[in-house]
Amino acid sequence: MCFVLFVLYVRYHLRVITPLSAVYPEPVLKQLKRALYYTNIDHNPVKATQYFKRCFDAAHEMGVSSASAEMIDIKWIMAGMLCKFDQYHAAIMVLKSVDHDCYMWNAKINRDAKNLHRTRLLRARIAACCKIGEYAAHELVNDMEMAEEYFISATQLSLAEMDRREREGVGENEGEFITQEAVANTLENLADTFEAKSNHALAAPLYLRAVTLMPKSCHTAVLMNNLASSLAQTLPEQAAGVAQVGAAEVPAMSRDMLIQSARAWAEKAIRMTAAIPPPERTEECEVGCAVATHNLGEFAEMEGLVEEARKMYVEAESLAKAIKFSEGVDNAKAGLKRLEKKAGGGVEIRNG
Prior knowledge:
Elements: H1 2-21, H2 26-40, H3 45-61, H4 69-84, H5 88-110, H6 116-136, H7 144-168, H8 180-196, H9 200-213, H10 218-233, H11 236-239, H12 255-275, H13 283-302, H14 306-322, H15 326-344
C-alpha cells in the first residue's frame, strides 16, 4: 500500500509540480505546492485556501504583479479548487479579483496602449466574467442578477473589442483576440440568462447575433432553435423598439410575423442538421432536429393548425425515441395531449 501511494505521489509530482518549477520563483512555488497538495491529495479546502493566500503574499513581497499571467493562473486554480468543494461564493470572489486586477492594470498602467499585454488581460477579464456568471447561476448561489451583470460585461467586452478590430484593424503587437465562436458563446450565455427570466424579447436578438458568429455546426442548430423559441414567445409590444447589447434594434412585428419568423428559423435548423455529415454530425445534431420538429408543432398549435401540429408532434416523438431523448418524447406526448384536450373541450382550432 505504501509503495502504491509513493508511486502515485511521484506521478503527481512529475505531472503537476515539476512543470511549475520553471514558472514560479521558489518562495511562491513553496506555498503553491502546499496549496496543490491540500487540493489534490489531502482534500482540505481550508488549508488549501490558506496556502493559496500565502502564494499571493509571497508574490507581492517579490514585486510580482497581481495581473501577471502567472498570478492569474494561480487564481484560476484556486477558484477551481473552491468549486471542487462547492464553495462557489468564495470562487466568485477570487474571479472578481481577476476581473478587477486586469481592469486596473489596463486602466492605470497600460492606458490606451494597444499591445499584447492589453489583449491578454482583456481575454482574462472576459473569461473571468463568463465564469462568474456561470457560478452565480449555479443552484448553490442562484443569484441571477449577478449572472446577468457579468454575462453582460463579458458580452460588451467581447463585442467592443471585436468591432474595434474590424474597424481599426489589428495592430502589429496586439496578438490574437478570442475567436468569433467564443464571442458567440458569451452572447448565448447572456441570452440563456434572459430566457430563464422569460425576457424573450431581450434573448432573441442575442441568439440572432450568436447565430451569425457561430461557425456552421450542430450547436448552431441549437442556437437557431433557441432563437425560434424566443421569437415565438415574444409579445409584439415587447419586441417593438427593444435594443439590447450586441444586437440591433428589433423592428415592430405582429404576432403572426413573430411566429412565421420562428417557424423559418426552426426549419433552417432542420436543414442545417441534415446537411452536416459524420463525424461532425454529433448527437447534438440529432437532438437539435428533434427539438426543431417539436418547435414547429408548437408554432402550428399557436396558430390553431391542429393537423399540422399533430403531425409535427408525432414526428418529433419518433425522432426523440430513435435517439433515446426522453425529454423530447415527454414533450411531444404532452403536445399531443394538449391537442386532444382542446379538441375534446370544444376549443376552436383550424385545420392546416
